[in-house]
Design a protein that fits this description.
313 residues, Beta-galactosidase, Chain A, domain 5, 8-stranded antiparallel sheet, globular
Length: 313
């Protein structure tokens, strides 16, 4: 279900500078810090302090932080909505009727709890981090398992994160309901808000959250200027994913989520049903890529980058 191909590494090795990049990991208290060429990139937080594991913060190759600090950091003037939207995170607000998206309180919403300490493999040009979570209900029952693997690398002037996710029905069937609030999400810094000058663009050339939200596309990019530096973040949906191209829960306040499940909500057609049921012993697998690029969208050949990703099997 979760795999890395030699072909994908060879593709990426063709980018200038990739071969010189070393990805390394350092275990800390409740988190694993990730560095590229000795420079901090991100950290994987898996402590039970949090109801879900997540990557935070994300940095551009320049070192610029591009994700919102809240709730891990208190930054004057920064927004404090949706505290469960942290960096890169996974969620779904209706798995067998249990909300694994929001974090209301542990007697009301579910948790994704790491089964053990994640494993890492440092390397050149890429390093990997693998983790297994249990889907724990407010009653402390385990509904199933989530397996994730993150691959970190530098490719030319860009940072890449590949996210491979498998939702496994190893404790019984799992029904993932039709909802706009599901799957892989990114919560970016406030500078990525549309009302602060950010630009949202999808693979069909649509611009702005109003036009992109609820539409299907191969990728969505957020670009803006942070502390005088132009930077962008694109999220790719792989062609082998279920129901590709995915729908997008793209909001103008800095949230971007690839979500195949919200068909009824996104289309506003009550006759449609985007829910999916994973039978006992089965699994539902996804592949996504996050591309952090210097400059605006016009400064990167996004279709070339997407094409390389799409050809990987």
């Amino acid at each position: 279900m979760i795999r890395t191909t030699l072909f994908s590494l060879l593709i990426l090795a063709g980018f200038p500078g990739t071969l010189s990049a070393q990805t390394s990991f350092r275990q800390a208290d409740g988190k694993i810090e990730v560095a590229i060429d000795g420079r901090p990139f991100t950290a994987f937080h898996y402590s039970t302090t949090w109801d879900k594991p997540f990557l935070h913060p994300l940095r551009a190759p320049s070192g610029l932080v591009i994700t919102r600090g809240f709730p891990l950091e208190e930054i004057e003037g920064e927004t404090t909505d949706h505290r469960w939207q942290r960096g890169i995170f996974l969620g779904h607000d209706s798995i067998n009727g249990v909300d694994f998206w929001r974090e209301r309180s542990r007697d009301k919403t579910g948790r994704m709890v790491c089964r053990s300490t994640p494993t890492t493999r440092a390397g050149r040009p890429a390093g990997t981090l693998s983790a297994i979570y249990e889907l724990v209900t407010p009653q402390d029952d385990v509904l199933g398992t989530v397996r994730q693997r993150f691959t970190f690398r530098r490719a030319g002037s860009n940072y890449l994160i590949d996210v491979e996710t498998a939702i496994v029905a190893d404790r019984g069937a799992l029904k993932l309901g039709d909802t706009e609030e599901a799957m892989l999400g990114l919560r970016l810094a406030d500078e990525f808000r549309e009302d602060r000058g950010a630009t949202l663009t999808n693979s069909d050339g649509l611009v702005g959250a109003k036009n992109i939200w609820g539409k299907r596309a191969r990728w969505v990019d957020y670009s803006t200027t942070v502390k005088g530096e132009k930077v962008g973040v694109a999220l790719f949906d792989h062609p082998t994913n279920p129901r590709h191209p995915t729908y997008w829960h793209a909001r103008g306040y800095g949230l971007n989520a690839a979500n195949i499940f919200g068909e009824r909500r996104f289309t506003r057609d009550k006759t449609r049903d985007g829910s999916m049921t994973i039978s006992v012993g089965g699994a539902l697998s996804f592949r996504h890529r996050v591309v952090i690029h210097p400059g605006g969208l016009e400064s990167v050949n996004i279709e070339e980058l997407y094409g390389a990703f799409a050809r990987e099997r």
